[in-house]
Amino acid sequence: MLNWNAIDTVLLDMDGTLLDLHFDNHFWLEHMPACYARHHGQSIEWAKTELYAMMNAIQGQLDWYCLDYWTRELGLPIVELKREIAHLISLRPDADTFLRALQRSGRQVVLITNAHRDSLSLKMERVELRTWFQRLISSHDYGYPKETQAFWHALQADLPFDPERTLFIDDSLSVLRSAREYGIAHLLAVREPDSRGARRYTEEFEAVEDYAELAAAITRASADLGFSATVIHDACHNAAHPNRWINQAMGHGSALLLGFSFPVFTRVHLEHHAHVNDPKNDPDHIVSTFGPLWLIAPRFFYHEWFFFQRRLWRRWELMQWGLERSIFVVIVLAAARFDFLPFIFNCWFAPALMVGVTLGLFFDYLPHRPFTSRNRWTNARIYPGRLMNWLIMGQNYHLVHHLWPSIPWFEYKPAYEATKPLLDAKGSPQRLGIFETRRDGYNFLYDILVGVRSHKRRSGKMRRAARFMPGRGLRRHWLGFVDRIAIKTEPKRSVSR
């Protein structure tokens, strides 16, 4: 039985795991031999003999999965032939339910497949899987199949993950053995990859019997820790309510009250989780370091610019943004027309501004300072305390949220106490950090009053001001000051786990 509280990353195979393997089996064992026989004017039995011998010779190698290889060897348009029976491509029962539960849990979910990119694209046309995953990775991207250790090393270099806290599900036993050799701790096979084939013995591996049961287990694991209380935050993780439409309604409603846009908040917040303390890709990094703390609330509207600049919207989210902003404008115009703007300001704008300052200070600035670490164990801060836990609703344990997003705010403190030995071993910061040294205190005072910081030691924009200063001494003092307040963020490749 899986311990979902010990799993941060889920790696999923595609064919036979999420998709019914009947399509691939039918294509290679029936449809392809028939096409090959017609091409050569031979019998289907002759074609099967020829093809099966070629397949067996390279089974487990990258060419075995490569459509370019088979197109070249057989002289047939493999992708076009696959399209002829594309109606057979289908999800396994309740696979979407399982993926939805994974997404709600806040875990890193990545698809890794030996399928060629052309095959992957064809299947994405028939079954929408992109929205459930942070990444879609083909072994052809690395040049090694999943059966080899080289693939796992390449995956780790491209997508750092902790093997001890990773679940991998695949229908291939040889691939599972390769993953086990690499050190992945949680492994599941698939009992019935082909819906029209026989159930099989998965040998030393436990097997997926029912994706609905796996989804329920994820939900139960989250429920054991409590349910999320911050509406807009939970809604962006699809966890505010189990019903998709109610979850959306709660997210849009809470966003309107705060003056936010729910699709903007959702996409930008997930980008923050994916790129914590990355000056270029973490939107909250700009919010925290681009000006004085007393102006942090208005800087949340940078999220909207980030949303459009990165083109983060999916499906109907652009239309949702337009409707939300239209409602906002209509309310303001109606207030101006019918003379109730003071009411709007006192009962809506002013409280929203106070909430924005609170969010900025306790949810963005304090938990992530000094904004240098991109290591998942040190990229956010813990500053324990019973009174602080009550006043700011657990955000003094913000690193707990980064590590295990499915844990609700009212369980941050117990989760911290349960995992403190692990956090100590990982070197996780467990102090507020603004008064530890005199320099920390000065930096905090600077952020309250000014807050603008450089991110580039030699080419930062603040350094350019030295050109216009009279006297070498003044320029030297200015450059020294800029260096002292600069944020020297760790490069991604150097992050250790």
What does this structure look like?
With 497 residues, the protein is mostly helical. It folds into four domains: 4-20 and 89-221, 3-Layer(aba) Sandwich (Rossmann fold); 22-88, no CATH class; 240-426, no CATH class; 454-494, no CATH class. Helices cover 53% and strands 5% of the residues. The chain is built from 23 helices and six strands. The protein has a six-stranded parallel sheet, covered by helices on one side. Helix 9 links the parallel strand 4 and strand 5. Helix 1 crosses helix 2, helix 13 crosses helix 15 (302-309) and helix 14 packs across helix 17 (341-368). The model is unreliable at 222-229 and 493-497 (pLDDT under 50).
Large-scale geometry: elongated
**Major sheet characteristics:** 6 strands, parallel
Major sheet: arrangement of strands = 3-2-1-4-5-6
Protein structure class: mainly alpha
- Number of domains in the coordinates? 4
Helix content: 40-55%
Query: Could you tell me the radius of gyration in angstroms?
Result: 27 Å
**CA(first)-CA(last) distance:** 26 Å
What sequence of helices (H) and strands (E) makes up the elements? EHHHHHHEHEHEHEEHHHHHHHHHHHHHH
Continuous helix count? 23
Low-pLDDT segments: 222-229, 493-497
Q: Overall mean pLDDT score?
A: 83
Can you count the beta strands?
Answer: 6
How much strand content do the residues show? 5-15%
